[in-house]
Amino acid sequence: MKKSIDNYPFIKIVGDKMNEDQYTDPNPRVWFSYFICGNPEPYKRWDYDQYIDDAIDLASKWHPSEITYERILHLRSWLRENEQHNHQIHFNNVRTLEGCRKLIYRIIDAEYRYMAGPERTEEIRFQKEHTDKIFA
């Protein structure tokens, strides 16, 4: 069973709020403010954003000194790509920072598999280098 993310020491969750159109929107959205790794700006977690929870859950397995706001958000972005573009790359057994970096590499490869030519090679290289900088 997935651990509740509000038990992690590197995250603070502040209340739930309705969006500004809560009285006119037939499907109002709720969001929470997540303060991640002491970052002064909250991450606004909407009710449909399970990707941030998955990224936080994966980060909880890292050594505490490895957990950063930038790494969690970068991982969240690629988990979103994985889910929304139906790449179906599973991450149940990922347990380390390096494992998460390799997971992102696999998602990047899947994301650009249908792109052709030198643009594909350049985009993959750029995305992997960017990941390496964040996960260095």
Question: What would you note in describing this structure?
Answer:
The chain contains four helices and three strands; from the N terminus they run βββαααα. It is α+β, with helices and mostly antiparallel strands and 136 residues long. It has one domain. The chain has a three-stranded antiparallel beta sheet, covered by helices on one side. Strand 2 (30-36) and strand 3 (43-46) form a beta hairpin. Helix 3 (97-111) runs antiparallel to helix 4.
Topology:
Layout (H helix, E strand, L loop, with lengths): L10 E8 L11 E7 L6 E4 L3 H10 L9 H16 L12 H15 L5 H18 L2
Antiparallel strand pairs: 1-2, 2-3
Helix pairs in contact: 1-2, 2-3, 3-4
Proportion of helical residues: 40-55%
What is the molecular shape? globular
What are the low-pLDDT stretches, counting only 5+ consecutive residues below 50? none
Total beta strand runs: 3
Helix-strand makeup class: alpha+beta
C-alpha end-to-end distance: 30 Å
Strand adjacency order, main sheet: 1-2-3
Radius of gyration: 16 Å
- Tell me about the biggest sheet? 3 strands, antiparallel
Short structural description:
By secondary structure, the chain is an alpha+beta fold. Helices cover 43% and strands 14% of the residues. The chain is built from 4 helices and 3 strands; from the N terminus they run βββαααα.
